[in-house]
């Protein structure tokens, strides 16, 4: 990990962008590396006492402060309910799914998407072992969940899971747990879940930062333009990698509401800048640039603030809003149908 | 060689009229929508262009005589299931490029469906161009030029075969759209050169947006 500050690629194999702010990054890393060492020791002690990783306030707090890389795959698997899925479907499921044939269209689109997944990552070079593994995981997933099959965006999620777990089967199960348990209907054939959540997000912004909401309206900028990728890719390919992983730590433990917090934190922190944009082009540009700024890059502060500065965001509120938005959509659909006769 | 977009305003020329248009790209996944935009906006081509999730937004300005035409480009995701998001993106668009891949007949059928949907549901009077992309793969062609040409003619579409890879016809197709868009002077009360269209969604018809 220590070499990363000086390298063109980070420890996950991602090539840093040309305009990468090494100075800012080094400043952050010099503090963060100490923190990590400190936390690693605490984690080891925690896991000695709670080897089953039973959910409790202490574990939650630890997850929010970040899971050490070496423990990440293990903790994600434990806290997210993978074991329950495995118990239900049997440990051989992955191997069975690899043999199950899938729809040819789906196979084709996966074939096209695999080489387009993190093409700049050194571990995903053309014909690399990882590309072949990713192909198998996505096909097995499609076989196992024909409702979803394959949705573009899952390639990035599975790809990042693979980089972290370095284990094909773990990756498959974590992908399942995300798609089938943690996120409501994001990747299905109609993508209803993600459309609803983008609208829920837009209402949360309206409630918490009405000026921003008004400004988006005035400039005719739909949240879907910005937030679709946030929700579908779970901030991979959006936020700096370390920050994305810290978000995923919380996501696996706490569920989908975490995504709203991340979005709200970005809006809150960059509110002034967003409001200064005078047209949709500069607003779109602003959204693209803020996610790579020093504030989100400093994942430690970012994650901490996202839990302290946004106020409460209980799952019950999110679920109420989801129900409300779904009901409105259903009503809209039926009036539309009636109008068309 | 990279055929850069029509040059930025030549030195010394006084700024003339500026027209701003919203343009949306639609079409099946991996036909080359993002590649066309990347070629047009940055003069680049990536062998492994990442698939677009949701939509991407870019702008590019071209010059027609004394008019600067600024395109607000909305590049969308092509997979069928992203279809339900599409109306949010093409709402209020004054122009569209519907893209297919000349080596893949299915993508042409999909393009026709997009054209139908736009003609039914998008801004009335929207300028639609049909792009048969990957012209450099001519030897693997499965959609004949005649067939698309006839279809485009019958449906009142602009039509070109393009290659984002070699840049053939890329700037040309945007230019042809710019030429077809209405650029007559309108009194703009919205200030800042904002568009006048689309305040009522797709119900209002196309109007120009110059200042
Ligand atoms: N040979 C050739 N390849 C092309 C051309 N245009 C695009 N490609 C390739 O086709 C693949 C898909 O291109 P994209 O631009 O990502 O296609 P898209 O339509 O944006 O795809 P989605 O974002 O998934 O909807 C990439 O690997 C490109 O390099 C072309 O004109 N010729
Ligand atoms: Mg694309």
From TrEMBL, chain A:
- What residues does the Rab-GAP TBC domain cover? 66-255
Instruction: Please indicate if the UniProt record lists Cell membrane as a keyword.
Output: no
The alphabetical list of record keywords is: GTPase activation
**Which InterPro entries does this one have?**
Rab-GAP-TBC_dom, Rab-GAP_TBC_sf, Rab_GAP_TBC_domain
**Which SUPFAM superfamilies does this chain map to?**
Ypt/Rab-GAP domain of gyp1p
Note the Pfam families from the entry.
Answer: RabGAP-TBC
According to the UniProt entry, its GO molecular function terms are: GTPase activator activity; small GTPase binding
Asked if the Swiss-Prot or TrEMBL record annotates the protein with the keyword Lipoprotein, the reply is no
According to its UniProt entry, the function of this protein is described as: May act as a GTPase-activating protein for Rab family protein(s).
Which protein, by its recorded name, is this? Growth hormone-regulated TBC protein 1
Give the taxonomic lineage as stored in the record.
Eukaryota, Metazoa, Ecdysozoa, Arthropoda, Hexapoda
From TrEMBL, chain B:
Q: Which Pfam families match?
A: Ras
Q: Is DNA-binding there in the keyword field?
A: no
Tell me the keywords, alphabetical order: Nucleotide-binding
Which InterPro entries would you find in this protein's record?
Answer: P-loop_NTPase (IPR027417), Small_GTP-bd (IPR005225), Small_GTPase (IPR001806)
Query: What does the record give under GO molecular function?
Result: GTP binding; GTPase activity
Database matches in CDD domains: Rab5_related
Name the family the entry cites. Belongs to the small GTPase superfamily. Rab family.
Q: What is this protein called?
A: Rab5
Organism in which the protein naturally occurs: Macrosiphum euphorbiae
């Amino acid at each position: 990990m220590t070499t990363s500050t000086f390298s063109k690629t980070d420890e996950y194999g991602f090539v840093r962008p040309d305009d990468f702010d090494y100075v800012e990054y080094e400043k952050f890393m010099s503090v963060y590396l100490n923190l990590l060492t400190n936390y690693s020791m605490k984690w080891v002690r925690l896991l000695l006492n709670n080897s089953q990783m039973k959910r409790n306030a202490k574990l939650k707090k630890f997850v929010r402060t970040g899971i050490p890389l070496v423990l990440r795959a293990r903790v994600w698997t434990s806290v997210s309910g993978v074991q329950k899925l495995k118990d239900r479907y049997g440990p051989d499921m992955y191997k069975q799914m690899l043999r199950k044939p899938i729809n040819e269209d789906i196979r084709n689109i996966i074939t096209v998407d695999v080489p387009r997944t993190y093409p700049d990552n050194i571990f995903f070079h053309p014909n690399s072992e990882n590309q072949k593994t990713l192909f198998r995981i996505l096909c097995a997933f499609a076989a196992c969940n024909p409702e979803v099959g394959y949705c573009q965006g899952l390639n990035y999620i599975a790809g990042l899971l693979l980089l972290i777990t370095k284990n094909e089967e773990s990756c498959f199960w974590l992908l399942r747990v995300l798609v089938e348990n943690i996120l409501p209907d994001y990747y299905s054939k109609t993508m209803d879940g993600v459309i609803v959540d983008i609208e829920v997000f837009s209402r949360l912004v309206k409630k918490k930062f009405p000026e921003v909401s008004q400004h988006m309206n005035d400039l005719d900028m739909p949240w879907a333009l910005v937030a679709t990728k946030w929700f579908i890719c779970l901030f991979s390919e959006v936020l700096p990698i370390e920050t994305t992983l810290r978000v995923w730590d919380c996501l696996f433990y706490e569920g989908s509401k975490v995504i709203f917090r991340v979005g709200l934190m970005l809006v809150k922190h960059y509110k002034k800048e967003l409001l200064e944009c005078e047209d949709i082009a500069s607003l779109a540009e602003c959204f693209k640039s803020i996610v790579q700024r020093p504030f989100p890059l400093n994942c430690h502060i970012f994650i901490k603030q996202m839990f302290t500065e946004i106020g409460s965001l209980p799952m019950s509120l999110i679920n109420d809003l989801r129900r409300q938005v779904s009901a409105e959509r259903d009503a809209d659909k039926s009036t539309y149908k009636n109008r068309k006769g | 060689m990279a055929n850069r977009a029509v040059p930025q305003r030549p030195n010394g020329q006084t700024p003339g009229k500026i027209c701003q248009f919203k343009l949306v790209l639609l079409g099946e996944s991996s036909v080359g929508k993002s590649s066309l935009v990347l070629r047009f906006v940055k003069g680049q081509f990536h062998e492994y262009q990442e698939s677009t999730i949701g939509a991407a937004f870019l702008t590019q300005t071209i010059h027609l005589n004394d008019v600067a035409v600024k395109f607000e480009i909305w590049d969308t995701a092509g997979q069928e299931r992203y279809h339900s998001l599409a109306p949010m993106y093409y709402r209020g668009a004054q122009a569209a490029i519907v893209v297919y891949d000349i080596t893949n007949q299915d993508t042409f059928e999909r393009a026709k469906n997009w054209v139908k949907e736009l003609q039914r549901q998008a801004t009335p009077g929207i300028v639609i161009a049909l792009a048969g992309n990957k012209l450099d793969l001519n030897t693997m062609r499965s959609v004949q030029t005649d067939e698309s040409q006839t279809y485009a003619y019958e449906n009142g579409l602009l039509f070109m075969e393009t290659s984002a890879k070699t840049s053939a016809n890329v700037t040309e197709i945007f230019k042809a759209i710019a030429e077809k868009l209405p650029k007559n002077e309108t009194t703009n009360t919205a200030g800042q050169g904002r568009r006048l269209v689309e305040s009522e969604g797709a119900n209002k018809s196309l109007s120009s947006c110059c200042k």
